[in-house]
Design brief:
- With about 350 residues, this protein is an alpha/beta fold.
- The chain has a single domain, classed as Ureohydrolase domain (Arginase, Chain A, 3-Layer(aba) Sandwich), CATH 3.40.800.
- It has a 9-stranded mixed β-sheet, with helices on both faces.
- The longest helix is centred in the middle third of the chain and has 20 residues.
- It is globular, with a radius of gyration of 19 Å.
Length: about 350
């Protein structure tokens, strides 16, 4: 049985729900309460062609921080849900389910987690992402769209692997300030949130325990396109060039504009393929999303960041979405946290069909 099914919080198929656990725990903060959900005849703006009907999004909260050293990113999913994300998605016409990954239970099975080579917390990352891959695959096999709330970006090892079980030809659009394509051989920090793409591609150095006990390469260089990069390690630059991976850096966004970049990106991956969108909120400029672990100035504007999600929604090809690296413990004040959480919610809505008119 999948971990999230074993610990399901609730199913939101258009009916009233009880106030979730964390909303009750913060009952003095009324803005975090979920309103009761009611039946709606609305439908999503776009026809999501690879999903069953009625269109259903399964929100998977995965409070995991083991891919990097900063505390607090595991609280991101709770804050996004408390901010009303589930109601917001239903208001767009989606049937909404919500389940929480049993991350604490999974981690309790990891008795020790010494470094393996340069890799930090490899057993924790492998254990959690293996289960997440199963959870995402289960959702996709049911004709639903998995929306994974992180947590750090190492979770994409599991989300993309799960998507590929259902949609072997799926393309991956990776929106991020960072390439996250270091390998266990090239990483300086050893933090695995900087390595998920290399594991998915099966690059040199990734055929290592414990990952090789369950993970096989699922991604080809031509399946992948990056948008928003601006902080790329030297080892990553070499990998990107050697494998001919399509990258649109912030220089390209400045030069061409985000509309042209998205046209080029979609032309590259093909306009009739399923799309997995993996969105790190640090792709946006730190003035927009300050509460994240590795902010880099010179990022996407609010509208550029949302246009990416909107353009993918317009294709009707979206089959999976990750929203990661919201860290409510970071930021100068409560307003910074609230702003970053609100952006995480609005990016999710944009990918799921919210329009300006």
């Amino acid at each position: 049985m999948s971990a999230f099914r074993a610990t399901a919080l609730r199913s939101l198929s258009g009916r009233s729900i009880a106030t979730p656990r964390l909303a009750r725990a913060h009952s003095s903060r009324s803005e975090y309460f979920l309103r009761p959900l009611t039946e709606t005849a609305a439908k999503p703006t776009y026809e999501y062609k690879f999903l069953a009907q009625p269109a259903t999004v399964s929100v998977l909260s995965y409070p995991f921080s083991g891919g990097q050293p900063r505390a607090g990113v595991d609280k991101g999913p709770d804050h996004l849900v408390q901010a009303g994300l589930l109601n917001q998605l239903q208001s767009l016409g989606w049937h909404v389910e919500h389940n929480e990954g049993a991350v604490d239970t999974l981690l309790s099975t990891v008795k020790s987690d010494a470094d393996i080579g340069k890799m930090k917390q490899p057993r924790a990352v492998s254990t959690v992402t293996k289960q997440l891959a199963s959870d995402v695959a289960d959702v996709a096999e049911g004709g639903k769209l998995p929306l994974t709330l992180g947590g750090d970006h190492s979770l994409a090892v599991g989300t993309v692997a799960g998507t590929k079980r259902k949609f072997p030809n799926a393309a991956l659009v990776w929106v991020d300030a960072h390439a996250d394509i270091n390998t266990p051989l090239t990483t300086d920090s050893g933090n695995l949130h900087g390595c998920p793409v290399s594991f998915l591609l099966g690059l040199e150095g990734t055929d290592v325990a414990p990952f090789n006990e369950w993970l096989k390469p699922v991604l080809k260089p031509e399946d992948l396109v990056y948008i928003g990069l601006r902080d790329i390690d030297n080892g990553e630059k070499k990998i990107l060039k050697e494998h001919g991976i399509k990258v649109f850096t912030m220089h390209d966004v400045d030069k061409h504009g985000i509309g042209k970049v998205m046209d080029l990106a979609l032309d590259h991956i093909g306009r009739d393929r399923p799309i997995h969108l993996s969105y790190d909120v640090d792709a946006l400029d730190p003035t927009i999303t300050p509460s994240t672990g590795t902010p880099v100035r010179g990022g996407l504007t609010f509208r550029e960041g949302h246009y990416i999600a909107e353009a993918i929604a317009e294709t009707g090809n979206l089959v999976a979405l990750d929203v990661v690296e919201v860290n409510p413990s970071l930021g100068d004040d409560a307003a910074s946290v609230a702003q970053t959480v609100a952006i995480g919610c609005s990016l999710s809505r944009a990918a799921l069909g919210e329009t300006l008119l």
